[in-house]
């Protein structure tokens, strides 16, 4: 496996984090990653048919499997918390652990809370006669909420980007005391190109979420936003948008109808930072969502884009979780007071926090149960009336034998619960040859049983012909779209290694460009550059995973894209 440089490509998550990388490269050429020769639709069909004839393809006998009707267990899918290492460790026996959102517990301009924690741990602070310290764990707000709400791992304290996550934690039954409403000021906003901003201001008079949603529904604005199950900014935008449709009833018929009209004009929902970066770089988006701290630290944005704040503030509140001993609660309160000192508020400002302090939250407090219902509504309505046709392409080469294949099966069996009965699903596996395990069909109870049976019957052997598997998937999708032209095609590739047999990336790149099928990939235990490149062609996502977290990441990706 090492000699093969293996990776396991699947569909991606998550893990949404800070958006800084989204914008690095916005000024790069929109032709990046495109082949030198344009391929017409007619030429693409001819090339696809020719390449398919060169591939040895077989069809597996249909096998039905037992459907698991139990809902997805978030706790079982989450990897061990060690997958999210500490950014600051404690120095004393008495300490409090803090889950921190990534815009303040990373590196550089995103490392403010780490700096504060390091100084706190060196300050010799004493509680009840004992020296104390803190440890900080860098973890995206939505992922942290999954750990806390599921009970998989509950830290002593939680500092998400905004209070929406705190309300959802409280609604799950976990005691959450708001120790500090604000550690470092920040806001979420819509970042829009100056040209489009001026155009819409001329028509609508001003820019806010109401005019943004109206412009999107009218086909006047191409905008992307992020997964509201994982992203603080995405969740904030979802709730704010619903409020513009009906402020008195976020889940009423009027709000739902308004959301469906608006969502029909959204090009895609970003699963990852890379996906949003590629979309911004290609010029397909006029606007996207972002936190102000990231915006102000990116000269490419401040020079060519306008920031318009929306929704609740992102002031990094601090919560004490659970029924803590008095000593733990005292440590958390001491840390909050320490962070709020003038010295550290100035250092926060130097890293981009504290801007737009005059902005007041547009939203009234939103109940955590209502927020969860809004997420569910988004999941049900985000594709509108456009069904998805998707083919899963799974690597079953020899190096997948044993635990890798077992985890692949588990991730697909859990992930298939997100697929949706109105969508159509097919399944392909490959090693040295390609097997059509399941032709594309509507994902009803029968197809779901056949999908489960196909996954359970997978066996590992042979080489790795990844691109042959993708070509067969494209052929299946083209045949489906010929009969159902209104469907949205997707391919999900799951592989653990570099291609060593069959066709090459160069031979199929033009097909992917011509058909404009997003190809979602996950690298398993490695980083497959060729597959990362393929995902970027049509603004899909590439995620790196391993045996521990692949189930969670696949589930997150399918939750967003299906």
Strand arrangement, major sheet? 1-16-15-14-17-18-19
**Radius of gyration computed on alpha carbons:** 24 Å
pLDDT averaged over residues: 86
Distance between the termini: 32 Å
Find the count of extended strands (DSSP E, 2+ residues).
Answer: 19
Our count of helices gives 22
| β-sheet strand percentage | 15-25%
Shape: globular
Percent in helix: 40-55%
The main pleated sheet reads as: 7 strands, mixed
Which structural class fits the helix and strand makeup? alpha/beta
What is the secondary structure topology, with strand pairs?
Blueprint: H1 20-23, H2 41-53, E1 57-59, H3 74-77, E2 86-88, E3 94-100, H4 112-122, E4 126-127, E5 130-138, H5 141-150, E6 157-159, H6 163-171, E7 176-180, E8 187-193, H7 194-204, H8 209-217, E9 223-226, H9 232-245, H10 253-263, E10 269-270, H11 273-282, E11 287-291, H12 292-296, H13 299-304, E12 305-313, E13 318-321, H14 326-339, H15 342-350, H16 368-381, E14 388-395, H17 403-415, E15 424-430, E16 434-442, H18 445-456, H19 466-483, E17 488-495, H20 505-515, E18 519-524, H21 529-537, E19 542-545, H22 550-561
Parallel strand pairs: 1-16, 3-5, 3-6, 9-10, 9-11, 14-15, 14-17, 17-18, 18-19
Antiparallel strand pairs: 2-5, 4-5, 6-13, 7-13, 8-11, 8-12, 15-16
């Amino acid at each position: 496996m090492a000699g093969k440089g293996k990776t396991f490509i699947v569909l991606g998550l998550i893990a949404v984090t800070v958006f800084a990388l989204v914008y690095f490269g916005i000024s790069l050429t929109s032709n990046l990653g495109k082949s030198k020769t344009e391929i017409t639709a007619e030429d693409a069909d001819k090339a696809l048919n020719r390449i398919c004839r060169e591939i040895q393809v077989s069809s597996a006998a249909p096998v039905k499997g037992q459907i698991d009707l139990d809902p997805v267990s978030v706790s079982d899918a989450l990897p061990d918390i060690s997958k999210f290492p500490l950014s600051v460790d404690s120095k004393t026996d008495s300490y409090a652990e803090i889950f921190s959102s990534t815009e303040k517990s990373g590196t550089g301009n995103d490392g403010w809370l780490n700096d504060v924690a390091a100084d706190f741990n060196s300050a010799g602070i004493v509680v009840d006669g004992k020296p104390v310290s803190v440890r900080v764990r860098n973890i995206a707000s939505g992922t942290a909420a999954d750990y806390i709400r599921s009970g998989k791992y509950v830290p002593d304290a939680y500092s998400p980007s905004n209070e929406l996550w705190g309300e959802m934690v409280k609604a799950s039954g976990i005691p959450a005391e708001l120790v500090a409403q604000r550690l470092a000021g920040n806001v979420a906003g819509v970042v829009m190109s100056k040209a489009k901003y001026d155009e819409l201001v001329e028509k609508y008079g001003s820019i806010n979420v109401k005019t943004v949603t109206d412009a999107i529904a009218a086909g006047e604005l191409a905008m992307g936003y992020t997964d509201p199950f994982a992203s603080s900014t995405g969740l904030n935008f979802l709730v704010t948008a619903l409020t513009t449709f009906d402020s008195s009833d976020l889940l009423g018929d009027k709000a739902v109808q308004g959301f469906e009209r608006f969502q029909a004009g959204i090009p895609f929902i970003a699963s990852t930072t890379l996906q949003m970066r590629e979309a911004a770089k290609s010029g397909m988006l006029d606007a996207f969502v972002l936190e102000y701290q990231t915006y102000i630290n990116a000269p490419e944005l401040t020079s060519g884009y306008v920031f318009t704040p929306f929704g609740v503030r992102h002031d990094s509140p601090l919560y004490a979780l659970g029924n803590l001993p008095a000593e733990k609660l005292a440590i958390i309160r001491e840390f909050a007071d320490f962070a709020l000192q003038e010295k550290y508020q100035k250092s926060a400002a130097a890293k981009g926090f504290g801007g737009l302090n005059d902005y007041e939250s547009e939203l009234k407090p939103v109940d955590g149960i209502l927020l969860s219902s809004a997420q569910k509504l988004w999941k049900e309505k985000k594709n509108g009336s456009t069904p998805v046709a998707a083919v899963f392409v799974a690597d079953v080469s020899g190096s997948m034998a044993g635990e890798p294949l077992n985890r692949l099966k588990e991730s697909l069996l859990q992930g298939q619960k997100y697929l949706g009965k109105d969508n159509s699903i097919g399944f392909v596996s490959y090693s040295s040859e390609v097997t059509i395990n399941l032709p594309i069909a509507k994902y009803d109870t029968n197809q779901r049983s056949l999908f489960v049976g196909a996954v359970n019957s997978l066996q590992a052997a042979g080489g790795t012909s990844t691109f042959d598997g993708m070509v067969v998937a494209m052929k299946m999708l083209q045949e489906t779209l010929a009969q159902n032209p209104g469907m949205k095609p997707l391919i999900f590739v799951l592989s653990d290694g570099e291609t060593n047999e069959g066709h090459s990336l160069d031979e199929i790149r033009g097909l992917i460009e011509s058909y404009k099928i997003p190809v979602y990939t996950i690298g398993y235990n490695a980083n497959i550059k060729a597959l990362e490149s393929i995902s970027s062609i049509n603004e899909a996502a590439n995620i790196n995973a391993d045996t521990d977290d692949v189930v969670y990441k696949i589930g997150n990706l399918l939750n967003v894209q299906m």
